Amino acid sequence: MALKARALYNFQSENKEEISIQENEELVIFSENSLDGWLQGQNSRGETGLFPASYVEILRSRSGSSYTDCSSSPAGSPRHDSFYTATPNPGISYQGSFEDDDDDDWDDWDDACTVVEEPRSAPGTNGHPSPNLQYPTAYGHHQHTGYRPKPALERQDSMSSSKRGSVVGRNLNRFSCFVRSGVEAFILGDVPLMSKIAEVYCIEMGSKGPQWRANPHPFICSVEDPTKQTKFKGIKSYISYKLTPSNINSPVYRRYKHFDWLYNRLLHKFTVISVPHLPEKQATGRFEEDFIEKRKRRLILWMDHMTSHPVLSQYEGFQHFLCCRDEKQWKLGKRRAEKDEMVGASFLLTIQIPTEHQDLQDVEDRVDTFKAFSKKMEDSVLQLTNVASELVRKHVGGFRKEFQKLGNAFQAISHSFYMDPPYSSDALNNAISHTGKTYETVGEMFAEQPNNDLFLMLDTLSLYQGLLSNFPDIIHLQKGAFAKVKESQRMSDEGRMDQEEADGIRKRCRVVGFALQAEMNHFHERRVADFKRMMQSYLKQQIIFYQRVSQQLEKTLRMYDNL
Question: pLDDT-based confidence at 65, cuts 50/70/90?
């Protein structure tokens, strides 16, 4: 039965089976049951096809509504949905990949392993999750907090239970990302301090404000040689990628599903970091040469951002992913990453901030400026993506056809000149015929040119669409923390809270504020480098292309010189 739905986010189709949808667009869903995270339906323009299930909200009557199909997250990112539990539909199969061999868990590496008793995560395309998923509660059955309750440990502010009545009230909306991420619990001092914290991430004051301390052992990692392989005597096929980290210079081979596993660990752990989205999945054609090449290019960009991030690059799970070659050690490291306690709100305990004073109002103003900037940049990135995508279609279709028509017309002129031999000039006829063939060649050159410039531009734009879509949720965490500080200070001024407890809330808010500012600075640093490289590459390739076209035309022109 057809259902009405509303698009939560923009989605740009990338093959003929998919359709594009726009935020807030009304849709018709043909079936509520998704196929590997995709729904089939019709958009407002009458186009029929597939789009990600995580990008839409099915509209129901109030009496039959549930939170299963809803998402209040602006980005829809799994990072802040990891503690939200919805009632799954038993008729829907959720898998971590569209590849038909994903039901075999971890191949020969880990046939019996599960992710800390959690169902397998299934983010939709472009890094967004399916809202129907149950995400891991690696910390017992507390669905709305990001920490493992340990009765033997004291709260961070060491407040006795007799004073619990004075603490700042909790948000009534228990489904907001501020609550689900566990940051509210951290701000209020309800995340237990660990007896020993092995990992520490430091923030320093730089020339432009707080910044992550650089990785003391920087490295890069190449992604090469996508190779189709088979298992079970050819019954199942997959693509493996050769990864070679520069710090060990020893290759490992990973499949997309292994990247997917790592990506979900990153989202689960790093609450206030904009984790780059993995290249999107595709419902069909995953073994086609163009798709494999496109995925490789985007994995290279993803890996470049991972290795350049001062925090993500040092994550033990990432290092294990890049370096481990032994099967037994792989399983041990994988389980260790899945049992990591310093995730979500507890990750904030690993952050060391500078002692410099920052006025919270100044921080809030800076965050507001970045929020406006990121929204404007997200809109402009989408605009350039649409323009570039349309230009690709013209190169492959319209431009090629127009030059072919022009070439055919020139050749028709040449053939007509042969009709009256006494007045026919073979040299002129051949020159005009060659001109027609030259324009046909130029048409083919236009069709092939996106491989050299536009596709590379679209790869970078796709990466930044993902990065920018993460920030609304991260900024919401900071806004929630600010609100708690203001509320606690008001309660302290009214004598309903000890100043010591209000100071504790302010101190923990500083951690979130410094982390967000460090992430903002890292984003700007990468943005300048990436867009400089993107624009230089595009312009250089454009110059080379038109020089080649010019050479073809000049060569043809010389045929007329001695007529």
Answer: very low
**Whether 409 and 344 share a structural domain:** no
Mean pLDDT of 212-219: 94
Vertex 110, ends 109 and 112: CA angle to 5°? Answer: 155
The pTM for the full model equals 0.70
Residue 556, Cβ neighbours under 10 Å: how many? 19
Residues 6+ away with beta carbon under 8 Å from 124: 37, 38, 52, 53, 54, 55, 130, 281
Tell whether 180 is in a known binding site.
no
Q: Domain boundary residue among 301, 326, 352?
A: 352
The pairing of beta strand 26-29 with beta strand 3-7: antiparallel
Strand order in the sheet with 252-255: 221-231, 236-245, 252-255
Indicate if the pLDDT at residue 151 is higher than 80.
no
- Give the integer Cα–Cα distance in Å for 447 and 441: 10
Instruction: Report pLDDT for 176.
Output: 61
User: Residue 253 is part of a domain; what is its CATH number?
Assistant: 3.30.1520.10
The whole domain housing 277 covers 221-352
CATH code (residue 553): 1.20.1270.60
Q: Tell me the per-residue pLDDT of 517-542, one tens digit each, with 9 for 90 and over.
A: 999 999 999 999 999 999 999 999 99
325 in the same domain as 411 = no
- The string of DSSP letters for 308-369 reads HSTTGGG-HHHHHHHH---HHHHHHHHHHHHT-SS-GGGGGGGEE--S----HHHHHHHHHH
- Assign residue 38 the CATH number of its domain: 2.30.30.40
Binding site annotation covers 295?
yes
- Answer yes or no: is 170 a known binding residue: no
Q: Spell out a b/e string for 375-404, using b for 16 or more CB atoms within 10 Å of the CB, else e.
A: eebbeebeeebeebbebbebbeeebbeebb
What average pLDDT is seen over the chain? 79
Residue 29's H or E segment, with its range, is: strand 26-29
Q: Helix (H, G, I), strand (E, B), or coil: what is residue 46?
A: coil
Identify whether the C-beta of residue 23 lies closer than 8 Å to the C-beta of residue 44: no
Q: Residue with structure tokens 């984003």?
A: 523
Question: Is residue 133 predicted with pLDDT exceeding 60?
Answer: no
**Within-domain flag for 518:** yes
Buried b (16+ CB within 10 A) or exposed e, 33-45: ebebbbbbbbbee
Mark whether 438 and 547 lie in a shared domain. yes
Q: If pLDDT is split at 50, 70 and 90, which confidence band does 35 have?
A: confident
At 407, which amino acid appears? G
pLDDT at 81 over 60: no
> Which among 187, 82, 139 has a CA at the least distance from the CA of 341?
139
Going by C-beta distance under 8 Å and a sequence separation of 6 or more, which residues neighbour residue 76? 8, 9, 54, 55, 128, 129, 131, 469
Q: Tokens standing for 263?
A: 């990506």
Strand partners, 251: none
